[in-house]
């Protein structure tokens, strides 16, 4: 029988995903729950972890646990101080935080922060594990989301990164007066094509956003295309901002599920950029396995 080496936990805002992993990084079992950080009551994190992993704890009482994501945030189980950029597996593993009073070996990945030369400051939790898990030595990673990250890797380390609140802004604008003319189904991709054109019209993003309403009123944009229009317009603005910060790469390494993968791939391809994508659960597990091997 294969002996497990550790339990890998990806504990985000809305979900908990756990894997029982052997010494070679193979998955022996998986578990998940809806007990995301935002839904766990004060003091409820030990019980939430036990509920997801109880059979493994019973069968393997001494198995260590390594957790990444918002579980280490100020609203999580224990706040794990950030590791500063540049940060690779060694620097991050050296800052793994042991959960006090847990009754077992439970550690939290610290997350990473970044101070730019212009004084801008940025933070992330969870994406650092995914970035390492890609195995990318040098290049530019894009991780779309509510607070999407663009990460510059150098020599296998997170050199610097920037956050774009594209997902949160999309949700807010879609629910606003600008997005009110949207109708189900939101499947008219002509809206995305129109947004790609609108993104290149002078006047900036806030002018472009109102075009979702104005073009719908004019009949240029079908109601089913309003949300695709808004999505693509915001993604175009994000990509333009990221390229302004990091320069134009030969390849953008994309970590995303659908529908973000398709939206970003189309927008990047239209700019002539090659896209290489990754499976998010796989690289998260790879990153946790890497950090487990590097821990002291």
Concise structural overview:
It contains nine helices and 14 strands. With 296 residues, the protein is α/β, with parallel strands linked by helices.
The residue fraction in helices comes out at: 25-40%
Rounded mean pLDDT is 95
Briefly note the CATH topology name of one domain.
Nucleotidyltransferase, domain 5
Low-pLDDT windows of residues: none
CATH homologous superfamily designation of one domain: 2-keto-3-deoxy-galactonokinase, substrate binding domain
Distance between the termini: 27 Å
Question: In sequence order, what are the helices and strands, one letter per element?
Answer: EEEHEEHEEEEHEEEHHHHEHEH
Number of helices: 9
Which CATH top level class of one domain fits? Alpha Beta
CATH architecture descriptor of one domain: 2-Layer Sandwich
Strand order of the largest sheet: 3-2-1-4-7-6
**Strand portion, in percent?**
15-25%
Specify Rg, calculated over alpha carbons. 21 Å
What does this structure look like?
It is a single chain. The chain starts with a strand and ends with a helix. It has helices spanning 45-59, 89-93, 127-133, 166-174, 190-198, 205-218, 226-246, 260-270, 280-294, and strands at residues 4-11, 16-22, 27-33, 65-68, 83-84, 97-98, 106-108, 112-115, 121-124, 139-143, 148-154, 157-164, 251-255, 274-278. Helix content is 36%, strand content 24%. The strands form three sheets. Strands 3-2-1-4-7-6 form a six-stranded mixed β-sheet, sandwiched between helices. It has a domain at 4-134: Nucleotidyltransferase, domain 5 (2-Layer Sandwich). α3 (127-133) crosses α9. The protein has 296 residues and is of the alpha/beta class. The model has no long low-confidence stretch (mean pLDDT 95).
